[in-house]
Amino acid sequence: MALFESDVPIREVVTTDPEKAKALENDVRAKILDMLADEEMTIEGIHKELQRRGEDKAETTVRHHVNVLKDAGMVEIARLEEAGGGTRKYYKSNTRVFSYDLPEDSDQTLSAAQDHTTEELRTLLTSLYEAHGDDIEAVAEELKPCEYCATQHYEEFLLRELLNRALLDLNESGALDEIVAGGE
């Protein structure tokens, strides 16, 4: 007889490739991504900003962290500049990491918004699958199995990826800022 039993629903989904997951294993790298999301910086600039944020790391360690992020495809060289007989590299993040805790009462406050979003997404995803289901299934058949998962959810992953990319497109075009500003 069980002392405790609960039906535990999925409440969070993290979609990323294994290389990016490994790169995010270190909280300093998440801080670097945050810093580089809004501003391009040199290793020296990143080092100084990390110190300002309470992370006392050697500049070589900072360079290592930036290289791990670069190798994972999360940071790119944004600009090269001649400097004192050498070249100064400026890095910029192409990845944004959100790491927030929602307030305790947010479920109740946002329940109507979540219900609305769920119904709108149901309609959108139905339409998307009707128009592009064959393409989604074709790409799903080419995906390699997730090394962590016994069960594979290829189509779900692709739908989440399409939604993420659409949000990114809206963000890059400025439409997301306009929507948020319109609600203020």
UniProtKB/TrEMBL annotation:
SUPFAM superfamilies: Winged helix' DNA-binding domain. Residues 19-106 form the HTH arsR-type domain. One of its GO terms (molecular function) is DNA-binding transcription factor activity. Coiled coil: none annotated. Pfam families: HTH_20. This is Transcriptional regulator, ArsR family. It comes from Halorubrum lacusprofundi (strain ATCC 49239 / DSM 5036 / JCM 8891 / ACAM 34).
